[in-house]
Amino acid sequence: MTELRFSARIGGHGVLSVVEKALLAEEAGFDQVWTGNDIFGEPGLVTLAAIALRTSRIRFGSGVMDPVSLNPAQIAMFASGLQEISGDRFLLGIGAGSDVFFRWAGLEPKKPVVRTREAVLAIRELVNGRTPAGVEGTGDHWTPNAKLKTARPVPIYIGAMGPKMLDLTGKIADGALPLCLPPRHVYGVVEQLKAGAAKTGRTIADLDVAACVWASISDDRREARTLLARFIAQYSGSLSTDALAANGLDPEEFARTQKLMLEGREDEAVASVTDSMLQLGIVGGVEDVIEQCAQLIDAGVRHISFGPPMGPDPTAAMKLIGSQVLPVLRRMAA
Fold it and tell me: Cis link prior to 183 (omega < 30° from 0)?
């Protein structure tokens, strides 16, 4: 059986604050840590380099780089460099990126699946010391001179949500970073990844599938639930109604909460979040979180990725997960 993996998705305000969280994740016993690199967002590349130099054990990844604001050749070059300075602990997360952000910069990219597929295939050639020129699926713009001076192989993950991107991930990626809202959404994701993998003669065992979940944990259960409720209220208008319905949730509940948010009645919106809506994340005290994670593991999930809001005090929450949740889950699966 594949070993369990646990990762933390971290962000912050400024490079140093994210690096401190990465150090905390390493100390707490997480296997991986992921941080973003959105155009106009935090300077993820700088942060990743700092994490590489400040940590010693934990694997760390870009969640995610896009092949629009960065050319795939640059991504391959940066990935190889991060592998070198970290002793091959870097994980390259690639995603289509946000068309909204690209428009701010006057960028007009290809369609999301097309640009992601071309980038992943080209980057894989480059980090293995080869040229993408003439390789099927990489695009027809590469020349034989397109080779890195210093190449170093790196696992490539895809940040995938929709059916087409999940299918692509199953076909060509080393790992998947699907946002699982609610956590049980991972079961449907795995089926789509399996179907994609089968098309290229692979199996789901060839991928590290990270079930990326929202988590809120605290010694005070009510405090943890209130925080996740506030988080859900803030995002209530951004969630796919089809995905909610497919997972047994009522889109009308989320619509009512969103209406209150739009009217500026945030406290009422938070209060309107029901127990059913709280199923979007993993929430509660230590025992609650262990129980909810154990259900995923029993169903075959081998990698749980804990993400925002994490807890009323994110630092305390990460320590709590590391000291009281992960050891229990690892013993259960032993």
Answer: no
Residue 120 CB-half CA count within 13 A: 28
One domain for residues 205 and 237: no
7, 317 Cβ separation under 8 angstroms: no
Amino acid at 285: G
| Under 8 Å between Cβ of 139 and 123 | no
pLDDT of residue 1: 53
Number of independent structural domains in the chain: 2
**226 and 82 housed in the same domain:** no
Contacts of 202 (CB under 8 A, 6+ apart): 170, 171
The answer, as to whether pTM is greater than 0.85, is yes
Length of the chain, in residues: 334
Same domain, 300 and 153: yes
CA–CA separation, 173 and 157 (whole Å) = 6
Rounded to whole angstroms, the Cα distance separating 225 from 3 reads 30
d(CA 39, CA 60): 19
- The token pair that represents 259 in the structure block: 């209406």
What is the Cα 280 distance to its own chain's centre?
16
Q: What is the pLDDT of residue 98?
A: 85
Same domain, 273 and 320: no
Query: If phi over 0 gives left and psi between -120 and 50 gives alpha, with beta otherwise, what is residue 193?
Result: alpha
Range of the structural domain that residue 246 is part of: 220-283
Q: How far is CA 222 from the centre of its chain?
A: 27
* 113 in the same domain as 27: yes
- Profile the chain (334 residues) by mean pLDDT over runs of 10 residues: 88 91 97 93 93 98 95 98 98 92 91 96 98 96 97 97 94 96 94 97 96 96 96 90 89 95 95 96 97 95 96 93 96 86
Give the type of residue at 107.
L
